[in-house]
Amino acid sequence: MSTNSLNVALAMPASTARTVFPPTSLDPLERSLNLLSHDPIEDFHSPEGRAVLVEADVLITGWGCPMIDDAVLDAAPRLRYVLHAAGTVKHHIGDACWERGIQISSAADANAIPVAEYTVAMIVLANKKVLQIAQALHSTRTAVPAEQLFPDMGNYRKRVGIIGASKIGRHVIRLLAGYELEVVVADPYLSASEASALGVGLLSLDELVASSDVVSLHAPSLPSTKNLIDAGLLERMRPGATFINTSRGELVDQEALLARVEQGDLYAILDVTTPWVLPAESRFYSHPNVLLTPHVAGSLGTELERMAASAVQEALRLSRGVPLAYQLKAEDLAITA
User: Fold this and answer.
1) Is 322 helix (H, G, I), strand (E, B) or coil?
2) What is the C-alpha to C-alpha distance for residues 137 and 131, in angstroms, rounded to an integer?
């Protein structure tokens, strides 16, 4: 089959397609491949979905794509590639895709960039004690002696601990390279030589949490990482340190985190919690040492266009006979989100 005759179809809810793909974002596909329809397949088992599916060589998927299983693949005899315009593929890529040799790609790297940007912004603010000083100013409405309150404020030579050298963790490391900070990492899958190549120190998790001014969590949500940040680790965190979570709430023992925060000497910046929206009576809302944001670190607004562009570029690589840049392997799923 000639690569320049590849048929491409979208598979996701129409609302996702409208949100992620701006009006002109699919134009490059029409110039280099055959886009079967601007309307996405929402139901693989509908007559309309089957009619498009039977012709598709490439599926570009998005949030809410139905599961691609044996039945779907039986109805898609030409399908060879699934390009996901979002992060994890665990919710729609069935075992049959891997077993039949379908090549899978993800825009997880593109989605990692805004999370890393959010994280770095929060690290800089945390070390500068901006949130605490702002609260003091709002409450006193008079001059705030910032250096008297926080004599160790500032980012120069502070230690930032990154838990997890994931895609997001590595982007955070890259962005922090422009600051005069000491960056250390804890990751059981990262070798000393890889850490050296990244320009970071490699520590055990215990060492990292006990010695870092800011601890930022970037590990994947897996059965083995549930409550990774437990009461013992939280107790080891330095007085005055800040804990940042942009990963998943279930990686943290939230009751233990709240108890440590309520001791008054730990700060927490939480973009994710379990549940996603905490109950109205949660003390996380009212504690002055906690900043909650409603899962805004990931791609939103114009940042969604980066993920669309990533998937489109993957399709254009196929049209040129070039390997996928972000191809996933089945074994990757055991250690990634």
Assistant:
1) coil
2) 10
pLDDT tens readout for residues 154-191:
999 999 999 999 999 999 999 999 999 999 999 999 99
Cβ(11)–Cβ(63) below 8 Å: no
User: What would the two tokens of residue 138 be?
Assistant: 């709002």
Q: What is the pLDDT of residues 234-266, one digit of tens each?
A: 999 999 999 999 999 999 999 999 999 999 999
The percent of the chain in helix, strand and coil, each rounded to the nearest 5, is 40, 15, 45
For residue 201, list its beta bridge partners.
184
Average pLDDT for 292-317: 96
pTM of the predicted structure, to 2 decimals: 0.93
Distance CA 236, CA 231 (A): 9
Strand partners, 160: 183, 214
- Copy the structure tokens of residue 123: 């690290």
Residue among 227, 232, 215 at smallest CA distance from 267: 215
d(CA 217, CA 308): 26
Q: Tell me whether residue 130 is exposed, middle or buried, using C-beta atoms within 10 angstroms of its C-beta: 0 to 12, 13 to 18, 19 or more.
A: middle
Percent of the chain residues past pLDDT 70, beyond the cut:
99
- Does 55 score more than 70 pLDDT? yes
Cis peptide before 275 (omega within 30 of 0): yes
Assigned token pair, 49: 């979905």
What tokens appear for 328 in the block?
Answer: 């996933």
Instruction: Kindly write down the DSSP assignment for every residue of 117-168, as one continuous string.
Output: HHHHHHHHHHHTTHHHHHHHHHHH-S---HHHH-TT-S-TT-EEEEE--SHH
Contact 177, 199 (CB under 8 A): yes
> What type of residue is 25?
S
Six-digit token pair at 78?
Answer: 């030409």
Q: What is the pLDDT of residue 334?
A: 80
Q: Provide the token pair at 144.
A: 């705030």
Q: Which of 306, 278, 308 is nearest to 290 (CA)?
A: 278
Query: Can you read off the two tokens belonging to residue 131?
Result: 């949130």
